[in-house]
Amino acid sequence: MSTSFGSAMAVDYTSPTIVLEAGADNWTADFGTSHTIGNFTDTFTFSYSGVSADATGFVRNVQNKKSNIDFYSATLNGVALDLANGAKYSDIDFADLPVNGTLTLVITGKATGDIASYAGTIDVTSAVPEPTTYGMLLGGLGVVGFLARRRKA
Predict the structure, then answer these.
(1) Which InterPro entries would you find in this protein's record (predicted)?
(2) pTM for this structure?
């Protein structure tokens, strides 16, 4: 798995483009960064083969005695993501968002205490038809062709 962790001490962080590792029908990457006290806006850019697909992932900060991060907002290609800021952790979740090509994840929040960090994973899965789907398509076209020919006769 490719991992891109950056250091962003009390400043905004912009990652270099992270190329998602390829599987048969899916791509994946881990990412994250750290902050000291203050507000931040972090931007992560991901790329993969560019076929139409669905993105799923999460981002999490686990609070400790000396630091914490609260997320204010998160978007993936402009689509707002679900947030939860709890007593022990802060979380961003998303599932089945249609994507194509380059992905841009923007996270805003506030870090308190000593160095606080968060990490996440993004998975992109393409919808590849099963071989039986192609068989049914060809069979259906054959039936339509047979009926059309029969009507001409």
Answers:
(1) Ice-binding_C
(2) 0.77
